[in-house]
Amino acid sequence: MERKQFEVTLERNPRISIKVIPGHFTNSNAHISHYLDVSGLKSNALIAREAARELAAPYLTDVPIDTIVCMENTKVIGAYLAEELSQHGFISGGGEIYVITPMSNINGKLTFYDSETEWIRGKNILLLVATVSSGRTVRGALECLEYYGGKLAGISALFLASGDRPNQKFHALFTSEDVPGYQVCNISVCEMCKAGRPLDAIVSSEGYTKISKLEG
Questions:
Q1: What letter does residue 95 receive in the DSSP assignment?
Q2: Environment class of residue 207 by beta-carbon count within 10 Å: exposed (0-12), middle (13-18) or buried (19+)?
Q3: What pTM does this model have?
Q4: HSE, side-chain direction, 13 A CA sphere, residue 109
Q5: Which whole number is the average pLDDT over 173-201?
């Protein structure tokens, strides 16, 4: 499947790109037609800084940010995003921006350490995620922020499935409109399954594992 890999480049900033692998993939709750490899954006410091500059643009007018909550290993980008926002002066009354990541409890619910809740409760929160396909990650994060009393200032993503916009404050570098044929299907009604196409890999925010390796 890797032989079919191609790159999608951000038109307004060619230094930013994602790798796309067509196939038949599954995560915990959906089947997906393409795997979006955004690891370079999350791990390469120079590219992460470029991505942060692009993601900061919608918040450089009148949206003060207190805290950036990073999901799916986006904390490097989150740190640069905080720096970018700080340089432009769009910080709330405390004069600082905190960058934190929630953890999952034994029930699979997102939670924060008690020592971090002061950076959430009553604060303006920017939620940063890697990829949004089914929206499950975003919904879980929003539920968590609501529980802790955070005020959502915006949601930013590296990639967003165009049909899934859980909030009007959503901004993304790439969308499924940039990936021809991109589909997210409920497992029970997956057209690729109906056509008899076997699964290629299990995907997560960390990467993918080929089914053949698991079977071997």
A1: S
A2: exposed
A3: 0.90
A4: 10
A5: 92
Q: For residue 27, give the CATH number of its domain.
A: 3.40.50.2020
Per-residue confidence (pLDDT) for residue 170, from 0 to 100: 87
Tally: H helices and E strands in the chain = 6, 13
Residue 135's pLDDT band, with cuts at 50, 70 and 90, is: confident
Q: Which domain holds residue 125?
A: 2-215
- Provide the domain count of the chain: 1
Give the separation between CA 187 and CA 167, rounded to whole angstroms: 24
User: Tokens in use for 128?
Assistant: 């940063």
Q: What's the pLDDT tens digit per position in 141-174?
A: 999 999 999 999 999 999 998 765 555 578 999 9
Place of tokens 């038949």: 24
CA angle 119, 122, 127 (to 5 degrees): 65
Return the C-alpha torsion angle 103, 79, 95, 100, nearest 10.
Answer: 0
Distance CA 120, CA 148 (A): 6
